[in-house]
Design goal:
This protein is α+β, with helices and mostly antiparallel strands. Helices cover 20% and strands 35% of the residues.
Length: 246
């Protein structure tokens, strides 16, 4: 059964303020995922020692990866990635619209790949939405529209996942669940899925949304000692399968 994880890694700086890319990779390795969606990665940034965090985590997991810089200043980049050991191809990586009435908001983006699961295509879209409610709403509507989830190439089973900075009571959540289903509500078992803040998680702001054709077995946020310290978010794990075609 395939396993997919979304994880905001906070530049690989843990709650103990220690920068440790290997610790983040160890959290993921213990989960043994097939697909990983990461947010808040530094690539070539002075503040985190110039390391390409996306490449280094992928190397440690023996996975291919695609990185999209939501923000870039000269050679320093910051953004999101998808890692996988499955056959894959990049479909799209692009910025999301912002909210022009507020200056200085952090740029946001999304990354879309197609992977092959048991010989069948599966669309994976990873994103990290903004912090301002109106900004989030604009970005969620854009993702739900013809540029992304309604794009002609986004056919068949699809998973949208990431850090949405929004709970199930938000307009963002309602916008996306008009197009896809929240995986947490489909899981056969009910386990804790709050991810933030990791030492004592009370908020569900990281999500998996799935299309018809995906059977969700389990969704959970591991609460082991390493996960509680490696980032300010816990990873969110989903075990799933593709429904029989036809």
């Amino acid at each position: 059964m395939p396993r997919i994880v979304t994880y905001n890694v906070h530049r690989c700086v843990g709650n103990d303020r220690r920068l440790d890319v290997g610790r983040v990779a160890a959290v993921l390795a213990a989960l043994d995922p097939d697909i990983v969606a990461l947010q808040e990665l530094d690539v070539g940034r002075r503040r985190t020692g110039g390391v390409d965090q996306a490449h280094e985590i992928a190397r440690r997991l023996d996975m291919a990866h695609h990185f999209h810089p939501a923000m870039q200043v000269e050679e320093e980049r910051y953004g999101d990635a998808i890692l996988t050991g499955l056959p894959e191809r990049l479909v799209k990586a692009a910025a999301l619209p912002g909210y022009d009435r507020i200056r200085g908001l952090e740029p946001r983006g999304a990354l879309w790949i197609e992977v092959e699961v048991a010989g069948r295509p599966l669309q994976i879209v990873n994103t990290h939405l903004g912090l301002v409610p109106r900004e989030q709403q604009i970005q969620a509507a854009h993702l739900a529209g013809p540029e992304w989830l309604e794009h002609p190439e986004c056919r068949g089973p699809a998973i949208l996942l990431g850090d949405f900075n929004a709970t199930a009571s938000s307009l963002v959540y309602r916008t996306l669940t008009r197009r896809l289903r929240p995986a947490r509500t489909l899981a056969r078992r009910r386990q804790p899925t709050s991810t933030f803040p990791s030492p004592l998680p009370v908020l569900r702001i990281d999500h998996h949304f799935v299309s018809p054709g995906i059977r969700v077995d389990d969704v959970f946020a591991p609460f082991d000692p390493l996960s509680r310290v490696a980032s300010d978010h816990l990873p969110l794990v989903m075990d799933f399968d593709l429904a029989p075609s036809g």
